[in-house]
Amino acid sequence: DSPMIPTNGYGDYQCSVFLVAGILAALQGREKTGEGDYVTCALQHAGIYTLATGMISAQYGNPYPKSRLEVNNPLNNVFRSKDQKWVVLCLPEYDRDWPRVMHLIGRDELADHPDYKCCQTVNDKGLAPEVVKILDDGFAQFTREELLKMFSENDMPCEPAQTPTDIYEDQNALINEYIKAVPYPDGPRWCPTAPVQFELGETDDLIPGGKLGSATADVMKELGYSEDEIKAAEEEGAVSGPVDLAVLQGK
Q1: Same domain for 152 and 98
Q2: What is residue 160's three-state secondary structure?
Q3: Rounded CA gap, 161 and 158, in Å?
Q4: CA atoms within 13 A on the CB side of 239
Q5: Are 27 and 83 contained in the same domain?
Q6: Total-model pTM
């Protein structure tokens, strides 16, 4: 209903993946032509490309952001369950599936409703908000698990709109190691792994990084500083060694 507030770094990962692909393409080009190239990938460019479908369809009358109450097909939508969780329904064949959905949510009397049974009529008469309200009320009768089971048994695509905490318990994500636990001293914390997997290599274990400043001495040694110079720099506050998180938080 409004522009999405993304999580931090949402576009950085896409940009880095595109940049890697560009570098590999340039390497292939150099192998074939003997001529190198200079590769760039701007954050804005990566974001525009990632939203390519929306970028193209907006000029054909399908602008974003859009309200879930004003969709062209109310059966391609998101709905909140009885236990206040979200599911994503994807039924592009509205006219075929409308009666089936009405049966599942206990509204058989609307299965053959002249205003609701045809997607074109819904759009021509601007009835999408009414239809979505009917669906909202119907879906709110069931828990998310009940909805997923019900639609799966009737061969209709309906999936959970998962939050990060849902993913922590997602068996597909866990078994395939899409996330792995980092063994921090105060207990494990989940972290996504790199999204490309290779048959010949296993997903590396994730290990905690050092504290802020933990590499200061090593870096200074590489730059040619002596042990005495490093110690003096730390004592005068010019550089810092390892710092506990509690100190950084002012505790």
Answers
A1: yes
A2: strand
A3: 9
A4: 17
A5: no
A6: 0.72
Specify the range with the lowest mean pLDDT, choosing from 7-16, 27-36, 73-82, 83-92: 7-16
153 and 83, same structural domain?
yes
CA dist list (Å): 17 to 12, 46, 129, 137, 193: 9, 9, 39, 42, 14
CA trace torsion 9, 11, 15, 18 (10° rounding): 130
SS3 content of the chain, % helix, strand, coil (to 5): 45, 10, 45
Residue 176 lies in a domain: no
Residue range of the domain that includes 53: 10-60
* Average pLDDT score over the chain: 93
Q: Are 161 and 87 in contact (CB under 8 A)?
A: yes
- CA dist list (Å): 30 to 17, 19, 25, 39: 20, 16, 9, 12
Confirm whether 235 is domain-assigned: yes
Predicted confidence (pLDDT) at residue 136 exceeds the cutoff of 70: yes
pLDDT digits (tens, 9 = 90+) for 162-182: 989 999 999 999 999 999 999
d(CA 190, CA 168) in angstroms, rounded, equals: 7
Task: Choose one of 116, 140, 161: the last residue of a domain.
Answer: 161
Q: What's the sign of the alpha-carbon dihedral 159, 146, 73, 134?
A: negative
Report if residue 131 sits inside a domain: yes
Count of domains forming the chain: 3
Q: Which of 146, 161, 176 is the last residue of a domain?
A: 161
